[in-house]
Amino acid sequence: MAEVEEKLRELVQQPDQRLRDFAYDYQALCLKWKPDMPEEEIVRRILNNTNPKVAGCLRGTVHTVTDLVKVGSMVEKDCGSAKGYWQKVHASTEGTGKRALEKRGGNKFNAVVTQPPPPQMPRAELLLVPLTICNVQGVAVVDTGSTYTLMREGLWRNLHGTSRDLIPSEDQRFVMADGTAHVALGKQRFGLDWHGRKLSVEAHVMDDRHLAFPMIIGLDFLTDAGVILDLAKRVYGLQTANGYVFHPFLLPPTRPGPWTRTVPRVHLYYAPQPGRFLPCWTSYPL
Questions:
Q1: Residue 192 reports pLDDT greater than 50
Q2: Which of 76, 94, 185, 259 to pair with 37, CA 20 to 30 A apart?
Q3: pTM (2 d.p.)
Q4: Per-position DSSP letters for 214-276, written without gaps between them
Q5: Three-state secondary-structure class, residue 171
Q6: Contact 283/160 with Cβ under 8 angstroms?
Q7: d(CA 241, CA 160)
Q8: Is residue 266 predicted with pLDDT exceeding 50?
């Protein structure tokens, strides 16, 4: 057993090793060493010895080895796609610069030709998707670095008013991009419409001052909904009865802004009395 313990102490995920293979190998060693080791302890040990970039996205989200492999493989694939995308961008920009230099005849005067400056990488854009909640349409930010789905208190009140109370978040703290930590005001589960799919999501509601965007979609919802992200092609896939259907992320200059009402898709004319509002549109005057 001492030999197994020593092997566990030295075992780390190799650069060319898939998370799936490493996780199951590590689990087998843990159970060989201590057959009664709790699964959460095994998950914690695996994350401590795997790719830090992937592990950072999984901590607090997965609690079983099966979930770790399922979600981790998706994150691992996204990281690989992003790396390949930037390599292609770099090669394309570099090749364009060389061809332009040769076309100007720069290669005839090697003594005075200077190398072009390093290519400027395009600024990373937000991953934006359209959503409809309670007949109110808006834009949410997809963030694979966020464990949970987050929503501003102002948007929550606009959607639900005072008709629904928040459930305590057990003092769940969230570390923002500026390094500060804040406690959620509460959480609640509700339904939404995403490209015709009716889905359920649980969101932690934050003070408006502590959240940069009205709504952030985290790994919890992406996992539950079985969403596939292809960052190289800037598309995301939603599962349907006929397989996955891919949609492009919204293009710039789209930015997350105020959520607005959608037009009812029924042939019915409705004349509201002055001062009357539909239940889900309490903050949007008709």
A1: yes
A2: 76
A3: 0.50
A4: SEEE-HHHHHHHT-EEETTTTEEEEEETTEEEEEEPPPTT------EEPPP-SS----PPTT-
A5: coil
A6: no
A7: 31
A8: no
CA distance 8 to 98: 50
Q: Tokens 């090669």, residue?
A: 91
Give 244's contacts (C-beta < 8 A, 6+ positions apart): 228, 237, 238
Looking up tokens 């843990």 gives 30
Please tell me the least confidently modeled range out of 34-48, 106-120, 185-199, 218-232: 106-120
202 φ/ψ angles, rounded to the nearest 5 degrees = -105, 125
Map out the domains of the chain as residue ranges.
Answer: 1-114, 128-262
Other C-beta atoms lying within 10 Å of the C-beta of residue 62: 22
Residue 74 CA to its chain's centroid (Å): 11
Q: What is the pLDDT of residues 101-145, one digit of tens each?
A: 566 555 544 444 455 555 444 455 789 999 999 889 999 999 988
Alpha helices in 109-194 (DSSP H): 153-160
Mutual orientation of helices 65-103 and 19-33 as an angle, nearest 10°? 150
58's CB contacts (< 8 A; 6+ apart) are: 47, 68, 71, 72, 75, 219
Query: Could you name the CATH architecture of 128-262?
Result: Beta Barrel (2.40)
How many H helices and E strands in the chain?
A: 7, 12
Instruction: Give the C-alpha distances (Å, rounded to integers) separating 193 from 136, 204, 242, 262.
Output: 10, 18, 18, 12
For residues 80 and 103, give the distance between their C-alpha atoms in angstroms, rounded to a whole number. Answer: 35
Given this model, what pLDDT does residue 169 score?
Answer: 80
